[in-house]
Write a structure and sequence with these properties.
Number of domains: 2
Strand content: 25-35%
Number of strands: 21
Number of helices: 3
Shape: elongated
CATH architecture of the largest domain: Beta Barrel
Oligomer: single chain
Order of helices and strands: HHEEEEHEEEEEEEEEEEEEEEEE
CATH class of the largest domain: Mainly Beta
Amino acid sequence: MGPSTPLLILFLLSWSGPLQGQQHHLVEYMERRLAALEERLAQCQDQSSRHAAELRDFKNKMLPLLEVAEKEREALRTEADTISGRVDRLEREVDYLETQSPALPCVELDEKVTGGPGTKGKGRRNEKYDMVTDCGYTISQVRSMKILKRFGGPAGLWTKDPLGQTEKIYVLDGTQNDTAFVFPRLRDFTLAMAARKASRVRVPFPWVGTGQLVYGGFLYFARRPPGGPGGGGETENTLQLIKFHLANRTVVDSSVFPAEGLIPPYGLTADTYIDLAADEEGLWAVYATREDDRHLCLAKLDPQTLDTEQQWDTPCPRENAEAAFVICGTLYVVYNTRPASRARIQCSFDASGTLTPERAALPYFPRRYGAHASLRYNPRERQLYAWDDGYQIVYKLEMRKKEEEV
């Protein structure tokens, strides 16, 4: 051993006493902490046992109440089903009674027979329309309804292009606007934040009313020229039809509608002066003039040139009319009341003369009490796209041959 070894041993022996004292204090501290934790664990266990007992008591008290509530719910559900069945039967009985006692036919009797004041002087041609397709269907009933969503204001238009190869949805909100929303497909339109999915197409002139139409890749709409209806001036009684290319976003044609003294054709839709429609036969226009301010007029248009091919004076009254559409050359006018109630097709006019008033069905729309600002028929889908107080609705139609009896 070296001379430094005894010194090292003395140094270690001198430090062993303090280290043993520190270890003793550490052990005592750990024992106190463990005792405190054991006490807290015991308290938690007691509280858990007490809470479990309270929950068991609460469960035992609630089970009978839940059984009573379930029985009451079943009783209410049974009662609601019974009431619903009674309402359905009542509506069928009302429909049957109204079918047995239909509304007054929309036929104007001759002045000499009625002895009423005034005469009707019309210079228009009212020749029968020669069908260009073999379409011979008429509405049997409005089969079902689906409310898609609520978008925009109380008046507007939404539709598909019946000749288009895509599933695009076109939405034109408002009665005096210049921007249309275009959605890639119906699913995108139904999303909560739908406007973010839409592209916007701006037309150079604001449209008038809700009579617009998307057809063959073009947007057809009525424009109020300076001094048009309601504006005063030399053209106070005229409207201009615009043909707008949706892809190129350019106006490709325009034409002044050949009718003077235009007035809103629908008594319940005061902002629309020309209502454009499309069916299996092509492009149509529904309008009214001061010459006969009680009835609707119908015109067949050339979609290429906007020329008016034929015109008819229909027996369908303007009063309480809210919208109309055309199927297979037949005009169907929808009527309602103010305030709005259940809409009904109450007058039809077949330009070809095939469908007689006696064979025409006058169905009600399904159980929604609202006001249609616009109705657009899609001949490919046999559906109506409706705008009802800001709600976008689809109606499915059931058809039958025009020659069949109601």
